[in-house]
User: Fold RagB/SusD family nutrient uptake outer membrane protein from Larkinella bovis.
Amino acid sequence: MKKILIIIGMLVSVYVMNGCTNLTENVLDEASATGLSDRQAADGIIAPVYARLPDIFTHTNYFALQEISTDEAILPYRGGTDWGDNGIYLAMHQHTYASTDPNLRNTWNLILQGVSRAITAINTLPTLNDPVTKTYLAEARGMRAYYGLLTLDLFGLVFVKDDLGANSTILRGDQAVEYLKNELLAVEPNLEPSVGPGRLSKGAAWGLLARLHLNAAVYRDPYAAQFTFKPEDMDKVVEYCDKIINSGQYQLSRDYFSIFNSDNHTNKELIFAVDQRAELNGHNRMAYFSLSGDQFPLPAYPNANGTDGPGITPDYYRTWVNAYAPKDPASVDPRFYKQNLSIYSNPADSCVAEADFNVNRGILRGQQYGLIRRNGVFLKCPDGKYKVAKLFHDTRNRPTQPVDFTEQIDFTVAGSNYNTGYRVEKYEFSKKSVSGRNFGEADIIILRLAEVYHMRAEARLRKGNDAASALADINLVRASRTATTPPPALTSMNLDLLFRERGFEFYWEMLRRTDMIRFGKYEDKWTEKTNTDKLKRIFPIPQTAIDGASNLPGYLKQNDSY
Assistant:
C-alpha cells in the first residue's frame, strides 16, 4: 500500500476553516516521501493530531471561554484603550456572547481541525506496516473523542465521521455521550500506560471517561432545571478514578506550584497535558496574560512584559478570605501564593542575580516589585546584579501611578484601570525562551491526579452522600503539598464545600465554566454579571459555521437563544 504523509501546512481545507463539517484533508503519496520508513511515516501522521492543542489552549481561545465566562476571571477595557476588542470580553463575562464572537469561532475551527487531523490519521495509519501504528491508531481515535468531548461541552454537539469525503453525523444529548464513551472504551486496550503526559495514555483515557460520566447529566440535558446524576454514572466515575489511582503511574506533587513550572513535563501529577517542551515551540501566554505591562519576568528580555489582561473577581477572591478568616489566605494555603522575590518581605533585598530572579506565583495582590527598565534596558546594581524596586506604570505613560493591584475590578472607568484586580501567575516563565513571550516550556495541564481525587469525591457525594469518603479524598490532596506547610485539613464535606475547594485547587486551569454548570452556579450573579439565562450554558455555534453549512438545509442548527 502507498505510504501517505500529511502536509501539515495544508491539512485543513477551506471548509474546515469556515467552520463547516466536511472535514477534508489534503495528502501526498509516497512519491514525495522517498526514503521514509513506515515508522517515520507513522510519526509524521500522528504528530499533527496533537499539534493544534497549543493553539486551542491559548489565552484568547479556550481559556477565554472557560474562565472569562465565570466568576474566576474578568477582563475589562483596560484604561479605555486595551482589551476593548469590540466588547467581546465584556460580553463573555456577562453571558451576552454572540455567534460572531471571534474567540468562539477560532476555538471552534481549531477543535474541528483537530478532528480532521485525527480522521486523516485513522484512515492513513492502517496503510503502514510498523507495530507502533496500533498504538498510534488508538491515540488518533481517542483524540477524535477528546475533541468531540470539547465540542460537546462547549457547543452541545459531537461530529461523527470516518470517511473524509462524507458529511459528518451530528449527535447531541445521550447519543453524543454514548458515542464518546464507546470510542474511549474501544481504544483504551491499545493505549500505552507510560507515554508521558503529552500523548493519550491509558490513564488519560480513564480520566476522560471519568469526566464524561461526571458531566453526563449536563450533556444529556444541558438546560435542565436540575441535573439528574445517575448512580451508574457515578459508579463509573469511581471505577475509572480508582484505575488511575491504583495504577501507580501518578503521584501528587509536594510543591503545588512545581506542577506549573517550565519543567513540569516530568511532574508525576500530570496525566494529560499540552506538550510544550522547548523543541515543540510552545507558548508562554498562560504566564504573561494576567501580569502588568510593567512586570518583566525574564532579565534577558526587556521587551517581554505582561499584557494587563484579566484579574480575578472580588467574588472569587472572597471565597478564599471567607474560608480562612481571620487569617490571610496566603499564610494558610500554599496554593494561594508563593513569594519568590524577597524584597516583598525585606525591602533591603533590592539586588538580585539573573539566575535567582523569579516573579512571585499564585494570586498577586497590592504593590508589585520587579525589574526596572529605563531606555529599553534593565537597571543594575554596582555588583552587576539586577535592580528590583517598586513598579510604576511606565509602559502606560503613567510613571507616578504604582503597579498596586486592587481587589476591586469591574467595567466602570475606575474599575477598568491598569492596576485593578488581583492577578494570577500560575505557570512559570521559561528561562530558555527565545522571545520571553512565546516558546514556553511549561506543559498546559488538561488533566492531573488531584482532579481524579476530586472527581471521585464528587461522585461519592452525588450518589450516596458519602461525605466521609469524599472528605478523605479532598484532605489527602490538601495534605500532599508538604514542600511548605500544607493547608489545614477540612472537618466536613458537602457539594458546596467541594465546589469551593475545586476553585482553590484548579483556578485558572480552564475547568471553571464546566464546574459552575455542573454545580448549578453558572446562572448565579457576580461582578458585572447578572444574566441568569440557563440557555447560555452552551455557546452559540459560530455564524461562519452556520453559513458554511447553508447548502445543507436543517443540517447544522443554531443552539437555542442565539
Observations:
- The first helix runs from residue 14 to 17.
